[in-house]
Each structure stands twice: as C-alpha cells, then as structure tokens.
Amino acid sequence: MPHTVIEKPLARSSAPYDVAAVREDFPVLRREVHGKPLIYLDNAATSQTPRQVIEVFSDYYSRYNANIHRGLHTLADEATAAFEGTRHRVKAFLNAEDARQVIFTRGTTEAINLVVQSWGRSQLAAGDEVLISMLEHHSNIVPWQLLAAERGFTIKVIPVDEQGALDMVAYRELLGERTRLVAVNHVSNAFGTINPVKEMAALAHQHGALMLVDGAQAAPHQLVDVQAIDADFYAFSGHKVYGPTGVGVLYGKQALLEAMPPWQGGGEMIKAVSFDSGTTFADIPHKFEAGTPAIAEVIALGRALEWVESIGVESIGAWEHRLLEHATQAVSQVEGLRILGTAPHKAGVLSFIVDGAHSQDIGLLIDQLGVAIRTGHHCAQPLLHHFGVDATCRASFAAYNTLEEVDAFVAALNRVIGMVR
C-alpha cells in the first residue's frame, strides 16, 4: 500500500536538538560547489528536501500512479487516499476546523490570486479599501493592483518603522468603515519581521473587515494556528517547508469558501454540466480544484509536514533563532556592513548591504566559496526602495544549518568584501 498521511501529529521529542541527525536526511548537503562543501543559506527562497519526501515520487510513479477521485480501480483508490491524507495532515498542521477548508494550489502566489479573483472580484467595488503592508511580497501586491485597476477600489499601505516593523498606530488609523480586507504576510521574506497577525486580525474584524495572511515564511519556522489567529484566509507553499515546488495551500473559513464563486472551470469542480441547464458546482474544497492536480506533489507535501512534525516546528524555530543571533552578532563586526530589518521579533532572515560593494558581486563571489545566499530585491521592491536601496544580500536559515556554517559564511563574506572593495 502507498504511504498514507495520518491526521494526528507525530509525537515530538524532548531530546536536545540534533542538527547532525537532521542533516543526514538531506542528500544535497553532501555535495560540493566549486570544490567547496555546500553551505546553503537561501532557504527563504526554497528549502532543501529530505530523502523521505524525495522517495514519495519514486514510490508514487512506480507503484500507484493514477488519477484521483473518479477512478474505481485499486490504483486510483490508493492515490486518492494518499492525496486526501495530505489534506487531513494540513488540517492538523494549521489547526483548521475541517479538512474541507484546505484548498490545494500551486503555491502561495496562486492561493492569493484565488482569493483576489474569487472573493475580491465578487465583493470589492469603488469606494472599498484593501489594506496591505509595506513588507509585502509582490505576490500580495500585484494581484490586488490588477483588480483595483478594474474594480476601482483603493489600496492603502501600512507603513513600517526604521527597524522594519509594522507601524501599528498607523494601522489602527488606516482601518475604517470602508476597509473590506487586510492582507499581510505573517513573516517578511525580505527582513524576517514577524507581524502580530492575531492582533491585526482582531482589529480588522472590529471594523467588519476580513484578514488574509501570507504564511509562506511562517509555516516552516513556527506553530501556525489559524483558529487562534482567527485568519479568514491563510496561505503557504510546499517548497518553503521542505516539500516540493508547484504545490501550496489556501485555508479559508468555511462560510466564506462556500459563498465564493469558482475561479477556474473544468473537471473535478462540478456536480453536473448541461448545455440546457448550465453547471452546478462541487462542494468545497473541490469547487476550487479544477482539473488534475499535482498528485505526487501533494502527497509529498504531506510527507514534508510529517517530517517537520517529527522534528518539531518549535524546536526548528528555536534552533534557527540561535543561528540568527549568532549570525547577527558575527556580521555586526564586519566593517561597512549594515543590517536591514532589525525588528525585535524576527525569523531566521538576515538581510544586509555592504558599503562600496554591490550585492550581486557579493552573491556571485561568495558562491565560488561554496556559500549560497540570495541577492536582489527579493520580490519586495517597495520595501527596499523605502529604505533607499535597490538590492540586499540575504542569508536565511533552516533546520539543517549549523553554527559552523554560519562562521564559514562570515569568513567567506569577509574574504569577498576584501576582493570587491
């Protein structure tokens, strides 16, 4: 039988964090780059994948590759069970009320676009206001801009302070009777700022507005409880949480999802189709899952979440915080280096610039020393421009990174800076 993801979370060990054991699960960490051991610090873009997740693809395509839901044969039953098992795993991972509130998408970007095109297109009009923050990824900016240009509603931006934390006083002032939705990230991909989304949701609801949370950078690093947050929508991506690319999740409150029209049409999302009487749509979640989905990827996502739970997301977050503190202290000694994003509550993201050195040059040269970091605008151009820069270097940490890797990264950085100045 194929691996079936269970809904009940695995028991979490109280043993000390064993990063060496964690690293054993990641084959890619044993490779070299330019003759140097790989030090992978680009986890905010894409985390690496453990062997347990990689094995899902071989298992699925070797043993029970079939389309789901509509088949009556054994392989279809097995594929459907594994696919829907992931839905229940996600329900538990997010502490959702019901597995039917879990919609599979291609990632956070598509999940947000689903809300924009289904809820937003049917609900927003001229005179309405949508609040987003200065910290947002382009995926939570551009879709709203596209719809606003068509529907005539107004987008207002919640500012940040000099540390890169949201200005909550300004947020309260921006909320009003015309506010229909607040859309913010849980954790900033560019600065690592952790936003007070529970407090923000409560304030939004006091004004009759809904709350959408981009959780792409939160789900891999901290417990997410959508009921405690009281999020109306919550989205995350598989490839940020040790899973495959091309798959993600939209959680929505049941009443909202049931009232929203479909976004895409096709197979699976219908009850009946007629040329005479039109189409009646399937119940949630299938109403929003038109066509054959990324079956193996969804099953692999379930295995990734199972892997995270076997380590303990709280343990992972605590370890990453230790890495962040160690790295922050170390790079603070680098002459001419300035950290952007110094909010008191941060995830494991270190974004910085160096006087007299272009971030792209640093990224290219440090790769020659085996260190992978991200350089550029991180799909957060409005935020970086607010701080007067076009690009930063970004090191971001995951469960498998070590203190020794941090030290090697800082040593490589010092060497590269000496070359480019």
Task: Explain this structure.
- By secondary structure, the chain is α/β, with parallel strands linked by helices.
- The chain folds into two domains: 19-44 and 312-420, Aspartate Aminotransferase, domain 1; 59-309, 3-Layer(aba) Sandwich (Aspartate Aminotransferase, domain 2), CATH 3.40.640.10.
- 38% of the residues lie in helices and 17% in strands.
- A seven-stranded mixed β-sheet has the order 4-10-9-8-7-5-6, sandwiched between helices. It has a four-stranded antiparallel β-sheet with strand order 13-14-17-16, covered by helices on one side.
- Helix 5 (142-151) links the parallel strand 5 and strand 6.
- Mean pLDDT is 95; it is low at 3-13.
CATH homologous superfamily label of the largest domain: Type I PLP-dependent aspartate aminotransferase-like (Major domain)
Given the structure, what is the number of helices?
14
What's the arrangement of strands in the largest beta sheet? 4-10-9-8-7-5-6
List unreliable stretches of 5+ residues: 3-13
Assigned CATH class of the largest domain: Alpha Beta
Count of folded domains: 2
- Tell me the strand percentage band: 15-25%
Alpha-carbon Rg, integer: 22 Å
Query: What's the number of extended β-strand segments?
Result: 17
Largest beta-sheet details: 7 strands, mixed
Assign the structural class, choosing from mainly alpha, mainly beta, alpha/beta, alpha+beta, or little secondary structure. alpha/beta
